[in-house]
Design a protein that fits this description.
By secondary structure, the chain is an alpha+beta fold. Among the domains are: about 240 residues, Spore Coat Polysaccharide Biosynthesis Protein SpsA, Chain A; about 140 residues, Jelly Rolls, CATH 2.60.120.260. The protein is about 35% helix and about 20% strand. The chain is built from 15 helices and 21 strands. The strands form 5 sheets. It has an 8-stranded mixed beta sheet, with helices on both faces. The protein has a 5-stranded antiparallel beta sheet with strand order 13-15-20-17-18. A 4-stranded antiparallel beta sheet has the order 14-21-16-19. Strand 9 and strand 10 form a beta hairpin. Helix 9 packs antiparallel against helix 11 and helix 11 packs across helix 12. It is globular. The N terminus is likely disordered. Its EC number is 2.4.1.145. It is found in: Golgi apparatus membrane; Secreted. Pathway: Protein modification; protein glycosylation.
């Protein structure tokens, strides 16, 4: 299951197995109180009790139990305690190994993608050789320019007549005027690579107040020591005024000298030649000329930052220079991403505001940057991102609801928000923005999972906008007025799905009594006839073709799906008796079979 919030394990490091406990005392160093993130309590781990000489283990154990019974001693056998502790320790080791495996799997996938990129880059080099050969052929004295061996190599490389693939220079031709247009004018840091998460923070000159120092302190102060080794924070100064850039760099080097020298923080700034002429932009969507220029430059800033960050880590998360973060944010983000490694997501959202807290897989940055470069003058970046999702999964012949369901599988929202916007004065001159993330301080009242795309419906009367659609997509919990016999909740998949298991959890911490009672779980196989099923499964078939595979007990329904019923077309929750209470459904997890 996916994380619904902050969870912690006994060893927070990545890539290391948990150390076996030794007799004596175990735990982490004192100083972390109970209830705090990362808190551990000291507890004794007892060695196995030695038995009296000459007695077999089972005889010694029976004698000890008999003596305790006569003495009224109800204390547990330490041997049992040690056994249980051992099992718990083994479970922790399994979890650690699973996480290590997921991280390794993700790194291998990234490596495969980068090999493909290198192949494309080599093809581009061949194209450059072709241009060199063409220039050589036009030259009056090519022999003096190149040796015979060089000319021979050039002819071999350009022997095939292939087409040229369009590049970003088509959309940004001014970059060809200066070969250093895509090289940072300022680059401070150790050039750390191979991390899990790269955090990108663009910053520009603000007329009233800068929030950059406070933002960096919030990010850094909420990292544990081992987390500081597994990430890099890239500050992008989106200005070409040398004096201003040098001033910002000096302030950051003074305030964060340790973090810069360790490789945790890097500072970059683009060359002036990176930016095109932004004085004659077309005004669109009712925006003023100044706002169009501001948002256009912002798109270019994001692209430069993404291109720089792409090779540094597995994931890239976009932040802003006027935010604060929640404690334990890094571990929460990493766990959430790794547990989604089998899903084809494109964006993970850790804030609902604008472009704050949007995380991408590093290989996807190539597509995103190319798309933004094509339309950087047309729309703001958050609109362009939505267009990318539309192009990837939306069918023009389907309605908007179908499109939203498809996009929800690529754009996954985590709640509660981990980042809060605190800046009052925008980088756009004269703009005051009182934007805050309403989900930042909210407790989590639902658990989020990625479910197969489906059309959802219910006969229940919804209370105050807590709809079933929002629950299925992980945006809210479902709340309905008193169910009666015959009511249903239906999940009809867009495409039949091979389902491994299901989990439905009703009630929440605010309303624990609002649970589903006398409700069954039913599935509709794609095939109505010819199923190779057991007699026990066959007996569960209903008149309308559904199979009853489970029911709610104490507000929860969970179980495995008989593989012979796959693929499944629909899930249905059916109320078979009137209920005396309202119903909340706060967790829906229909888990697909993984290859």
């Amino acid at each position: 299951m996916l994380p619904s919030g902050v969870r912690r394990v006994a060893d927070r490091s990545w890539g290391k197995a948990l150390r076996p406990r030794q007799p004596g005392w175990s735990g982490r160093a004192p100083g972390r109180g109970r209830g705090l993130p990362g808190a551990f309590c000291w507890q004794p781990v007892l060695p196995p009790r030695t038995r009296p000489r000459g007695l077999k283990p089972d005889v010694a154990a029976r004698r000890r139990r008999a003596l305790r019974a006569r003495a009224g001693d109800a204390a547990p056998d330490p041997a049992v305690t040690v056994s249980e502790a051992g099992r718990s320790h083994e479970n922790e080791k399994v979890i650690a190994y699973q996480r290590e495996f997921l991280a390794l799997k993700e790194r291998l996938r990234i490596a495969e993608h980068r090999i493909s990129q290198r192949s494309s880059e080599l093809s581009a080099i061949v194209q450059q050789f072709k241009r060199v050969e063409a220039e050589t052929n036009r030259s009056k004295d090519p022999v003096n320019k190149f040796s015979d061996d060089t000319l021979k190599i050039l002819k071999e490389l350009t022997s095939k007549k292939s087409l040229q693939v369009p590049s970003i220079y088509y959309h940004l031709p001014h970059l060809l005027q200066n070969e250093g247009s895509l090289q940072p004018a300022v680059q401070i840091g150790n050039g750390r690579t191979g991390v899990s998460i790269v955090m990108g923070i663009p910053t520009v000159k603000r007329e009233v107040k800068s929030y950059l120092i406070e933002t960096l302190h919030s990010l850094i102060d909420n990292l544990y020591p081992e987390e500081k080794l597994d990430c890099v924070i890239v500050v992008f100064i989106g200005e070409t005024d040398t004096d201003y850039v040098n001033g910002v760099v000096a302030n950051l080097e003074k305030e964060f000298s340790k973090e810069i020298s360790s490789g945790l923080v890097e500072i970059i700034s683009p060359p002036e030649s990176y930016y095109p002429d932004l004085t004659n932009l077309k005004e669109t969507f009712g925006d003023s000329k100044e706002r169009v220029r501001w948002r256009t430059k912002q798109n270019l800033d994001y692209c430069f930052l993404m291109m720089y960050a792409q090779e540094k880590g597995t994931y890239y998360i976009q932040l802003e220079d006027d935010i604060i973060v929640k404690q334990n944010y890094f571990n929460t983000i990493k766990n959430f991403a790794l547990q989604l490694s089998s899903e084809e997501w494109m964006i993970l959202e850790f804030s609902q505001l604008g472009f704050i807290g949007k995380m991408f897989q590093a290989p996807d940055l190539t597509l995103i940057v190319e798309f933004i470069f094509m339309f950087y003058k047309e729309k703001p970046i958050d609109w362009l991102l939505d267009h990318i999702l539309w192009v990837k999964v939306c069918n023009p012949e389907k309605d908007a609801k179908h499109c939203d369901r498809q996009k929800a599988n690529l754009r996954i929202r985590f709640r509660p928000s981990l980042f809060q916007h605190v800046g009052l004065h925008s980088s756009l001159t004269g703009k005051i923005q009182k934007l805050t993330d309403k989900d930042y301080m909210k407790p989590l009242l639902l658990k989020i999972h990625v479910n197969p795309p489906a059309e959802v419906s219910t006969s229940l009367k919804v209370y105050q906008g807590h709809t079933l659609e929002k629950t299925y997509m992980g945006e809210d919990f479902f709340w309905a007025i008193t169910p009666v016999a015959g009511d249903y909740i239906l999940f009809k998949f867009d495409k039949p799905v091979n389902v491994e298991s299901y989990l439905f959890h009703s009630g929440n911490q605010d309303h624990p009594g609002d649970i589903l009672l006398n409700t069954t779980v039913e599935v509709l196989p794609l095939k109505s006839e010819g199923l190779d099923i057991s007699k026990e499964t066959k007996d569960k078939r209903l008149e309308d073709g559904y199979f009853r595979i489970g029911k709610f007990e104490n507000g929860v329904a969970e179980g495995m799906v008989d593989p012979s019923l796959n693929p499944i077309s629909a899930f249905r929750l059916s109320v078979i008796q009137n209920s005396a209470v309202w119903a909340i459904l706060n967790e829906i997890h229909i888990k697909k079979v993984t290859n």
